[in-house]
Amino acid sequence: MKMINITNLKNYLSEELESIYQDAVFIVTEKTGLNQSISPEKCCYLLEKLLAKNWLPN
């Protein structure tokens, strides 16, 4: 089993968070038919919050 370097993964996620968010918004709008304009233009969550073990958005 190959070990993942957590530091590199966090750096990657930090660099790609906005792109990942935009992809997620696109997928949600395609699947639900909702208008993309109801989603914030940029991700409103910090990566540290998204990765926290006990964090879920309200």
Concise structural overview:
55% of the residues lie in helices and 0% in strands. The protein is mainly α and 58 residues long.
Q: pLDDT below 50 for ≥5 consecutive residues: which ranges?
A: none
Indicate how many domains the architecture comprises. Answer: 1
Which overall shape is indicated by the principal axes computed on the Cα atoms?
Answer: globular
Helix % is 55-70%
Q: What's the N-to-C terminus distance?
A: 36 Å
Mean pLDDT: 88
Structural class: mainly alpha
β-strand number: 0
**Radius of gyration computed on alpha carbons:** 14 Å
Q: How much of the residues is beta strand, in percent? A: under 5%
> How many helices in DSSP terms?
2
* Largest β sheet strand count, sense and barrel closure: none
In N-to-C order, the SSE pattern is HH
Pfam family, one: DUF29
Describe it.
With 58 residues, the chain is an all-alpha fold. The chain has one domain (16-58). Helix content is 55%, strand content 0%. The chain is built from two helices and no strands. The chain has helices at residues 6-32, 47-51. The protein is globular. The model has no long low-confidence stretch (mean pLDDT 88). It holds the Pfam family DUF29.
